[in-house]
Every structure is written in structure tokens, then in C-alpha cells.
Amino acid sequence: MKKLILGITLSSLILLSTIFILSKNKKTVNENIYYTIPRILTYHYEENKKMCFEVFGNNENTLIEFVEENSYYLIDDKSSYQLQDVLVTKEKDYTTKEETFFKYIISCNLLHISNEDMIFNDCSLKVVNDTFTLECYIGDIAIYHGDYHPLEFNDLYGNYAYIHGELHMVGFTIQLDEMYKKLSNISIGPAYVDLTQIEQDQLYDSERLEASLKHTLLAEKKKQDPFKLNAKQNYYFMPISYPNLALFTTGCILIELDGKTYYIEDFTYLANDISILNYKNSKREGKMIYA
Asked: What does pTM read for this prediction?
């Protein structure tokens, strides 16, 4: 009798354990997970221009891609702005034995709230539908409305380095027109160029080693004296510093030269496809609240 009871007990425990494991595995498979990579997004405002956000998810079929089912917002610590003319496209990001992730590219009209420059710090994308609310950290966004002038230059490319295993922009190399004489400021959203560390007629490769950098990558912006532009070949390496490291690949850069502010229009500094697989340290998980 005791053996029978022991056998029934063991069988029950095995059955319960199996149910628990299967249930746990099922939950893991079905659980929607979303990530974003903190970015600096900068735009020179033009009518009909689009802004884009990338959200990475582990589900090929998710509600966030159906625009008629959702409302999309850009939010910061002050306000919430509903996005207009939203379009969502999807592509496979990567596949391993353990998981598959998809990249959801969400595009919309540039915000036009005022005719002044608009700066959004530490902002997030919010997606709302009848099933859940998803909030994903984006980073910093700048939309420049000022009466700035297009910059005259002859050559331009980005310089990147692996920082903690992730590729980030550490500067850019530009050949300016010789008519410019004095540089006062360069802004890339919250990032900036340390004028004291500019190097003249130094052509670095587009990919550099972190150990080769001469400037401080993480630093708060400080007041700077103007830099005299007198390179013989008019080439300058512009070292970028960040208050907080974030990915920058394409965007608008503001440059103050000879008392005027110029812009480089939406130049692509890094053409690589960005995968969440390569930004495991900096990625941020989205917050999901079910209705």
C-alpha cells in the first residue's frame, strides 16, 4: 500500500513538474518583448519630410504594425505629441537557434509645433491600442527650424569606433571650403565637438580604435573659444563628445562659422544596417501595460 501511495505521489509530482515546465516555456515563447537602441536623431525641417524610429520585437505578428489599430505618440517629461501619417514596415533583424527578432520601422511626419528649433530630451515612443500600451525609449531628437544656411564642403565622412563592443560615432572628417575662417560651435543634438581637440589635415580611417582617440568621449559641454581654420588642405577631424553615449548614424549637424549658423543636411555617416544583436549593452527594453 505504501509503495502504491509513493508511486502515485511521484507520478503526480512528475506530471505537475511537466505541466509547469511546458507552461513556462509556452509563456516565454508567446511573450512579446520590444527593444530600442538609444539614438540621437536630428532633422532640418522641411515640409513633407519624415522622421523614423526603429523598434525591435520577437514577434513577427504584433499589433504595433497595424496603424489603423494604434495611436502613436512622442513623449518627453513635459508633453505628449500625437504622430501623423504613420507608416510601419517590417523586416527580419536576426535569427539564432534560440530566437528570432524583427525590426519595425515606424515613420511619420516631422513634428511642426512651432517655427523655433525643437529639442526633445530623453523622449519615448508610445503606442496605444485596445490591447496594450507600449512605451519605448528613443533618446534625443532635435528638429531645426532656424533660418540656417547650407554648408559648403568638399569632402565628408564619419569616424566610428567600437566602444564597449558597440560601434559609435567618435567624430567626422570634413574638408571645408577655404572661405571659412573661424569655427565657434558644432552641435549634433546634445552631442558636440570639442574645439580644443580638432586635428588639421589628419585623414583617419572611417573605423578607428578606441585607444587611438585623443579626446574625451563622454563629457558635458562647456564654453569654448573659437577655433581658427587654417589647415593647408582644409581637412579637419572633428572629435565628438557626448553627455550620454547614443547611436548617431544619419542626421543634421549645425556648424557656426564666421558668425553664421550652417547645417549639413541629413548626411549618412554610417551606412551599416543596425541590428539589436550588436547593441546588447545599450539596448533598452520597452514597457508594456495590458489593457
From this structure: 0.87
Q: Note down pLDDT in tens along the chain; length 291 residues.
A: 444 444 555 555 454 454 454 444 443 446 899 999 999 999 999 989 999 999 999 999 999 999 999 999 999 988 999 999 999 999 999 999 989 999 999 999 999 988 899 999 999 999 999 999 999 999 999 999 988 999 999 999 999 999 999 999 999 999 999 999 999 999 999 999 999 999 999 999 999 999 999 999 999 998 999 999 999 999 999 999 999 999 999 999 999 999 999 999 889 999 999 999 999 999 999 999 998
Residues 6+ apart with CB under 8 A from 231: 200, 201
